[in-house]
Write a structure and sequence with these properties.
mainly alpha, MetI-like fold, 16 helices
């Protein structure tokens, strides 16, 4: 014979009060779980950034000391030796490594060799352009990838589905610089309807420079000028680079949405709705759409890294003066201090973005927990 012990608060609660108390306990437990998840993910940023920054340091040092790489052949051996000693590159590698870590975690990414600028200044000057381009590319990826993914799921295993799947593969497999060159050839050279390069025309850039506090994000700055022509000019310059970089991610989104919508359409509750006579189009639009977006949210963090990598080629192709464009310039000048600082910052940005995306995914989907 077994006996059960009923807590005093449960014995005193009326039948109508017990469900409410149970809901409060479940809500409290859920809040504790999401809190622990956020703390764990936040703590994981530290080793992630540490590993990424250490890899950047090791890769840069395998090339040799930055002074010789950038200025070798232009300075005498004695001058090189003096510059190397002044920069501390003749010290033991471990000493340089720990000094480098200390600088990174204090926000000091070094000073460029080719133009003697603090890397932090380069980042603040050109970082807004890269963020703006990534924003445009994400808009293109969402606008193209999600509707076409739903369309492919609706026509699954038919010829429109086959065409869209081939399109998704082409989007992902085509080099972003090649896509950019094709877009420039068609819309700038042949049709002449869009600018061939740059972030804005000279007149718009002059208006932005006259602002008391420009942000470096031209779309925001164009709105600050109060001139609709400036806004239109900035947007026209953003169309081609945004499409070239956005199609890279749109192909991934298309395949993800298609796969997840098809999976959702085979769920029991969808079969029940189908048996009640709900049309297939309504099933895709109403029942399978939102669950298919959850995987999109979870992979956005990974796509940020892809977008930042693609931004180097996109910005170089369209002379879009952001961090990617400057990174290519510093690589050409063999300024590995600048390269090391910019890549380290991008690594930190990717780690923080992944944290934010993981938290959003956990808030939306209760199944995402540690």
């Amino acid at each position: 014979m077994t006996t059960s012990v009923i807590p005093a608060e449960a014995r005193s609660a009326s039948p109508g009060q017990r469900p409410a108390a149970e809901r409060r306990r479940k809500s409290s437990a859920g809040g504790n779980r999401i809190g622990r998840y956020i703390v764990v993910r936040l703590l994981l940023i530290i080793p992630t950034v540490f590993i990424l920054v250490s890899m950047v340091f090791v890769l840069m040092r395998t090339i040799g000391d930055p002074i010789t790489a950038a200025l070798g052949g232009r300075l005498s051996a004695e001058q090189l030796k003096e510059r190397i000693h002044a920069a501390g590159y003749d010290r033991p590698i471990l000493v340089q490594y720990f000094e480098y870590l200390g600088q990174i975690f204090s926000g000091n990414f070094g000073t460029t060799i080719s133009d003697h600028q603090p890397v932090t200044t380069v980042i603040l000057t050109y970082g807004g352009a890269t963020l703006e381009l990534a924003f445009y590319a994400l808009i293109v990826a969402f606008v193209v990838g999600i509707p076409l993914g739903m369309l492919a799921a609706y026509f699954r295993d038919k010829w429109p589905d086959a065409i869209l799947r081939v399109f998704a593969i082409l989007c992902y497999a085509t080099p972003v610089f090649f896509a950019g060159l094709l877009l420039k050839l068609v819309f700038s050279v042949w049709l002449g309807v869009l600018p061939v390069s740059g972030r804005a025309s000279t007149s718009t850039e002059l208006d932005i420079q006259l602002l008391p506090h420009p942000t470096g994000i031209y779309l925001i700055d164009a709105f600050q000028t109060g001139n609709p022509a400036d806004v239109a000019d900035v947007l026209s310059h953003a169309i081609l680079p945004g499409i070239a970089l956005g199609l890279l991610t749109a192909g991934i989104f298309l395949r993800l949405v298609r796969t997840n919508v098809i999976g959702t359409l085979s769920a029991d509750y969808v079969d029940a709705a189908r048996s009640r006579g709900v049309s297939e189009f309504r099933l895709v639009r109403k029942h399978a759409y939102k669950p298919a977006l959850i995987p999109i949210i979870t992979v956005i963090g990974l796509q940020i890294a892809l977008l930042l990598g693609g931004a180097v080629l996109t910005e170089t192709t369209f002379e879009w003066k952001g961090l990617g464009f400057m990174l290519a310039q510093y690589l050409g000048a063999r300024d590995y201090v600048a390269v090391q600082g910019i890549v380290a910052l991008l690594a930190v940005v990717v780690a923080i973005t992944n944290f934010i995306v993981d938290v959003i995914a956990a808030l939306i989907d209760p199944r995402v927990r540690y």
